[in-house]
């Protein structure tokens, strides 16, 4: 079964995944390839509901993989009750990466590579509300929880490999 990295945007899922010596399936990248455009554009043209449907399809496919691999999820994958049920079945193989709001916000604001619609379209206060809502949805979905505030991506990767 795959190891699934969960967590809010800015906690280091993609960065950490790329440091591990496992095949990596980045859900956001797979979704962008499937929809033929950036997630930000898809949100704008099709809406969040359409995006979440594609996200669920991709999650189901990746959780069905039998090979040792790593799945890096998007930060909103837990918004869907169905996705949370799927993830609950994989709980022992899920790793929740966390960061305080201030650290996550700073990392996202420094990331010039990624256009994150929720970050770009919300005030800092509204974005913090989204963060708090999502953090409550992650609870209970992973046996392993790693706070990344003061850890390098390499240290996080070592913790995952030692779990």
Explain what you see.
This protein has one domain (3-161): P-loop containing nucleotide triphosphate hydrolases (Rossmann fold). It is of the alpha/beta class and 163 residues long. Helices cover 52% and strands 12% of the residues. The chain has a 5-stranded parallel beta sheet with strand order 2-3-1-4-5. The relative contact order is 0.22.
Instruction: State the helical fraction.
Output: 40-55%
Count of domains: 1
Averaged pLDDT = 92
**How many extended strands?**
5
Q: What kind of sheet is the major sheet?
A: 5 strands, parallel
Quaternary structure state of the chains depicted: single chain
Within CATH, the superfamily carries the name P-loop containing nucleotide triphosphate hydrolases
Q: Which topology does CATH recognise?
A: Rossmann fold
Strand content: 5-15%
**Architecture (CATH level 2) name:** 3-Layer(aba) Sandwich
Can you count the helices?
Answer: 9
Q: Alpha-carbon distance between the termini? A: 14 Å
Radius of gyration: 15 Å
Which class in CATH terms?
Alpha Beta
Shape: globular
What's the order of the H and E elements? EHEHHHEHEHHHEH
Structural class of the secondary structure composition? alpha/beta
Give the low-confidence spans.
none
Strand arrangement across the biggest beta sheet:
2-3-1-4-5
